[in-house]
C-alpha cells in the first residue's frame, strides 16, 4: 500500500511498517504520520551509520599508517644497532678463543664500528685483564712470608712470585703502548706502527709464559695452590691477549688496504 507523505512528500510503501501502523492506531496517530516519521528516523539512522562507518575507516587507515611509518625507523635503527655485533662476530669467529672473544667484546661499551675499533677494543679488554692480574700478583707477593728459613721450594716460590709481578707489569706496559700506537696510526707509518704493535703484544704473551715457568710443580700443597691461582689469572690474560693479537694481525692485512679503518689518528671516535 502506498500513502502520500505530509506536505506532498512522495508516496511511500508502508507494507513493511504494519507493526508501526498498529502502534499508531493505538496512540491515535494517523497512518501518514507514523509512516513518515518512521522513514525520517530510518534516514537519520542510515546517515548516522554511514558517517560512523566513514569515521571508522579513516581511524583504521590512520592507525595503520602511523604504525607502519613509525615502525620503519625503528627497524632501521635496529639494523644499525646490529651492525657492530655482526662485525664483532665476524672478527671473533676465527680467533684463537672465539667464545671468549665474543663474550668479552659483546660486553664492551665502546665503539666497535670498524676493524680498528675492534682491535682497540680487544686491546682494552686485554689491558684491563692484565691490570687486574698485576694487582693480584702484587697483593699475593706482599702477603707471602719471608723466604728466610723456608724450604728451597718455598724460596723458589717467593722468587717466582716476584718475577711474575715484574713480568705482568711489563705486559701491562707493552699492552698500553700497543693501544696508544693504534690510536695514532698514520698512513705513511702504518706498516711500521703495526709491526711495533704486533711485537709488543707478542711480548706480553711471552711474559705470561715466563711467569708460569718460574713455578716448580713439586713444592707441596701450598705451592701448588699458589701456582694454580697464578696460572688461572695469567692464562686468562694470555687468552684475551692472543685474541687481541689476532685482531691486530687482521687489521694489518687485507682490511687495512680496503679502508675499513681510518689510519689517520683514530677510528672516527674519541678514545
How does this model look, in words?
This protein has helices spanning 18-27, 31-92, 98-106, 115-143, 152-183, 190-213, 220-251, 254-257, and strands at residues 2-3, 12-13. It has two domains: 2-66, no CATH class; 93-257, Invertase/pectin methylesterase inhibitor family protein (Butyryl-CoA Dehydrogenase, subunit A, domain 3, Up-down Bundle), CATH 1.20.140.40. The chain is elongated and about 105 Å long. The longest helix has 62 residues, at 31-92. It is 75% helix and 1% strand. The protein is built from eight helices and two strands.
Secondary structure layout plus pairing:
Blueprint: E1 2-3, E2 12-13, H1 18-27, H2 31-92, H3 98-106, H4 115-143, H5 152-183, H6 190-213, H7 220-251, H8 254-257
Antiparallel strand pairs: 1-2
Helix pairs in contact: 1-2, 2-3, 4-5, 4-7, 5-6, 5-7, 6-7
Summarize this structure briefly.
Belongs to the PMEI family. The protein is an all-alpha fold and 271 residues long.
List keywords for this structure.
Butyryl-CoA Dehydrogenase, subunit A, domain 3; disordered C terminus
Please report the number of helical segments.
8
The CATH H-level superfamily of the largest domain is Invertase/pectin methylesterase inhibitor family protein
- Shape annotation: elongated
Q: State the secondary-structure class.
A: mainly alpha
CATH C-level class of the largest domain is: Mainly Alpha
Number of domains: 2
Looking at the structure, the CATH topology of the largest domain is Butyryl-CoA Dehydrogenase, subunit A, domain 3
Overall pLDDT level: 75
Q: What is the alpha-carbon Rg in Å?
A: 41 Å
Proportion in helices = over 70%
Strand order of the largest sheet: 1-2
- The separation of the N and C termini measures 92 Å
The major beta sheet can be summarized as:
2 strands, antiparallel
Order of helices and strands: EEHHHHHHHH
Percent of residues in beta strands: under 5%
CATH architecture of the largest domain: Up-down Bundle
Low-confidence stretches: 14-27, 31-36, 67-80, 255-271
Number of strands: 2
Transmembrane segments: 47-69
Protein name: Pectinesterase inhibitor domain-containing protein
Subcellular location: Secreted, Extracellular space, Apoplast
Family: Belongs to the PMEI family.
Amino acid at each position: 500500500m502506498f500513502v502520500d507523505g505530509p506536505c506532498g512528500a512522495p508516496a511511500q510503501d508502508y507494507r513493511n511498517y504494519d507493526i508501526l501502523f498498529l502502534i499508531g492506531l493505538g496512540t491515535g496517530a494517523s497512518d501518514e504520520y507514523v509512516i513518515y516519521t518512521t522513514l525520517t528516523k530510518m534516514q537519520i539512522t542510515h546517515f548516522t551509520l554511514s558517517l560512523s562507518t566513514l569515521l571508522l575507516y579513516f581511524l583504521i587507515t590512520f592507525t595503520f599508517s602511523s604504525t607502519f611509518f613509525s615502525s620503519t625507523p625503528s627497524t632501521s635503527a635496529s639494523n644499525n644497532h646490529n651492525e657492530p655485533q655482526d662485525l664483532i662476530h665476524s672478527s671473533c669467529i676465527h680467533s684463537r678463543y672465539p667464545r671468549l672473544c665474543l663474550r668479552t667484546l659483546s660486553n664492551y661499551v665502546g665503539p666497535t664500528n670498524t676493524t680498528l675499533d675492534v682491535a682497540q677494543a680487544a686491546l682494552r679488554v686485554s689491558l684491563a685483564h692484565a691490570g687486574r692480574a698485576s694487582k693480584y700478583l702484587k697483593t699475593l707477593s706482599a702477603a707471602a712470608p719471608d723466604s728466610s728459613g723456608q724450604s728451597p721450594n718455598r724460596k723458589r716460590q717467593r722468587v717466582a712470585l716476584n718475577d711474575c709481578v715484574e713480568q705482568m707489569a711489563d705486559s701491562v706496559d707493552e699492552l698500553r703502548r700497543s693501544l696508544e700506537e693504534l690510536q695514532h696510526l698514520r698512513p705513511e707509518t702504518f706498516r711500521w706502527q703495526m709491526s711495533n704493535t704486533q711485537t709488543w703484544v707478542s711480548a706480553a704473551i711471552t711474559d705470561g709464559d715466563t711467569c708460569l715457568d718460574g713455578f716448580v710443580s713439586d713444592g707441596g700443597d701450598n705451592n701448588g695452590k699458589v701456582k694454580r691461582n697464578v696460572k688461572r689469572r695469567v692464562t686468562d690474560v694470555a687468552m684475551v691477549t692472543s685474541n687481541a693479537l689476532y685482531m691486530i694481525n687482521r687489521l694489518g692485512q687485507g682490511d687495512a688496504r680496503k679502508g675499513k679503518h681510518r689510519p689517520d689518528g683514530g677510528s672516527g671516535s674519541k678514545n
